[in-house]
Amino acid sequence: MPAERRDVLRLGGVSLVGALSGCLSTEGVYINRPSDESTPEPTPEDDGNGADGDDGPDPLEGPIGSLAEATRRVVDEAAWFGTTYDDVYDDYTNALDRAVETILQLENMTAISESDLERLEDVTTYVEEAIETGLEPHFELASRVRSYNDRAIERVERFGERGDRPALNDELESLREYYERLRGLFFRQENLSKDPIRNRLVEFMAAGDPDREDEDDPVHDTLFEFRYLSPIRYVGEMRYGIRYLRGVRFRARAHTEFAVEDRDDPELLGDPAASPAGSTRWEPTYTFSERFEPVAVPEDRRDELEVVVNDWADYDGGPLGVYTEQFVSWPIYVQRYDDFEAAAAARDSLLDGPVFLEPDRTVELGDLEWQQARYRLDGEVVYALFKQFGEFVIVVAPARTPIEDRYVPSRNPGIRRQVTEAVVIRDDDDGDEEPLRIPIEDVEADDTVRIRPGEVIPVDGTVTDGESVVDESSIPGGSATAEKEPDDEVVGSTHNLESVLFVEPSDYVEESWTLPLERSWLRVEGS
Predict the structure, then answer these.
(1) Cα(200)–Cα(130) distance, rounded to whole angstroms?
(2) Fewer Cβ neighbours under 10 Å: the N or C end of the chain?
(3) DSSP code string of 377-403
(4) Sign of the CA dihedral 79, 82, 88, 93?
(5) Which residues, 6+ apart, have CB-to-CB distance to 517 below 8 Å?
(6) DSSP state of 43
(7) pTM, to two decimals
(8) Residue in 134, 140, 273 with CA at minimum distance from that of residue 201
(9) Any one cellular component term from GO for this entry (predicted)?
(10) 334, 385 in Cβ contact below 8 A?
């Protein structure tokens, strides 16, 4: 790449809108920074790919193999919901309807014969098979239904043998009502829902081996929003000079059954982040597809999966309306190709064209390094994490800010980074309190931040001492001025106007900017 192009790329990032700033913390993340700030030129030997791709179509091993398998599970499960769920659910409801109709006929008979009992056993078995061959193992339902059927059939046979018609009819009625409940909308939404999805996809998308029975497991604080797209290809014969396109688009949310469904909050008016604006780091004018369009390679692509991972542990209703803007979130763009060769060709076409890979700038997610790549969006430079392995090409967390400069000063959307340092009060070796000027990314939750009159408040937090007036006009929807006293909350990048304030940073200030990614399947450990 010519030096002039590298210089233009570096300078182009300065003017990108603040909503793309990705102002986040590097605390807890290992970042490999090159000593030379100039952009390295890829060598002919490695073509700038570094350790990004695997060596060939042989089975992958170690952490990269685990990542490939985890990604395959996620995409396969999302594809099942997008392409198969509706058909198998129709088969399931048809089996229940057939069973209910048969039971109603038996309830209206004056006597139950041996052949009638066989009919009952046949329709209950048909229901079980519809669940086992369609809904399982995506949902866990078959064992419950089978157990209920076995008990019901045993009681019907026993009551029939002794001629107790009232008890037999009561049992048939109970079985019919049970099937009607399985058929009902409420049961579907609670147990077999397509949106939100609370099945095994949640565990597939989460990092490690989540324990859904443990209420403290981070999986309950994670909201996955996604859109699955099947290949859109020409099908059928040409007619009137036109060949028709066919494809599947399916979007949904996925979270555990123990998570609070914040979608019920009347203030939460936005669609899932995978379709409109999405992450807090982007302006509302960008859709998910638009922000990743420069890195999309459709040739021989089998699936696309657009995912936004949200940390919603501290969501409290908030004032801003679109709920994804209340959370720390990052998007993940997955492209699956027909095979390794097709994925490698897609990677090569990107690196030969719009994407420049920087193998010396990396972030560790678990046991794997992800390299920084950069590309242009509407003429501006965007930095993201990039990896190709097996049949997959994945691009993660695009923002104007390079990975080594990201931090989390505020969870309020639309906030521009206005200062790079903060003055904190810490005890020195003698136990005396001493003011220290440190980078914002080094601020810890147990620090006390001092803000003098006329200074910018560097991080979100709570006032512990002092009274003053703060200019909050930099916050979207904020007031021009607001009086602050102890226990009041302040927002990073607002201005202190009158008196000294001492602020305790919010807990999340010291979090890594990669927190949502650490919650996802992209974090692989111990493989």
Answers:
(1) 19
(2) N
(3) ETTEEEEEEEEEETTEEEEEEEESS-G
(4) positive
(5) 309, 330, 332, 365, 396, 397, 523
(6) P
(7) 0.73
(8) 140
(9) membrane
(10) no
In the chain, what percentage of residues exceed pLDDT 70? 71
Residues 222/310, Cβ–Cβ less than 8 Å: yes
φ and ψ at residue 73, rounded to 5 degrees: -60, -45
Structure tokens at 26: 């590097």
Contact 393, 297 (CB under 8 A): yes
**DSSP letter, residue 133:** I
The total of other beta-carbon atoms located within 10 Å of residue 166's CB is 8
Does 281 lie in the same domain as 311?
yes
* Long-range contact pairs involving 205-214 (C-beta distance under 8 Å, separation at least 24): 205/74, 205/254, 205/307, 205/309, 205/520, 205/521, 206/519, 206/520, 206/521, 207/366, 207/518, 207/519, 207/520, 207/521, 207/522, 207/523, 208/523, 208/525, 212/256, 212/257, 212/258
- Domain count along the chain: 3
Q: Please, are residues 268 and 220 in contact by the beta-carbon 8 Å criterion? A: no
The residue-averaged pLDDT of 420-437 equals 79
Task: Find, among 297, 196, 334, 306, the residue nearest to 249 by Cα.
Answer: 306
Give domain status of residue 295, yes or no: yes
Mark whether 318 and 455 lie in a shared domain: no
What are the b/e assignments for 363-402, b being 16+ CB within 10 Å?
bebbebbbbbbbbbbeebbbbbbbbbbbbbbbbbbbbbbb
Tell me the per-residue pLDDT of 344-384, one tens digit each, with 9 for 90 and over. 999 999 999 999 999 899 999 999 999 999 999 888 888 99
Judge if 53 and 141 occupy the same domain.
no
- Is-contact 502 465, C-beta < 8 A? yes
Question: What tokens were used for 293?
Answer: 């369009």
Residues near 219 by Cβ (< 8 Å), separated by ≥ 6?
202, 203, 206, 210, 211, 212, 256, 519
User: For 49-81, how does the pLDDT look when each residue is reduced to its tens digit (9 = 90+)?
Assistant: 344 554 455 678 899 999 999 999 999 999 999
Q: Where are the alpha helices (DSSP H) in 458-498?
A: none
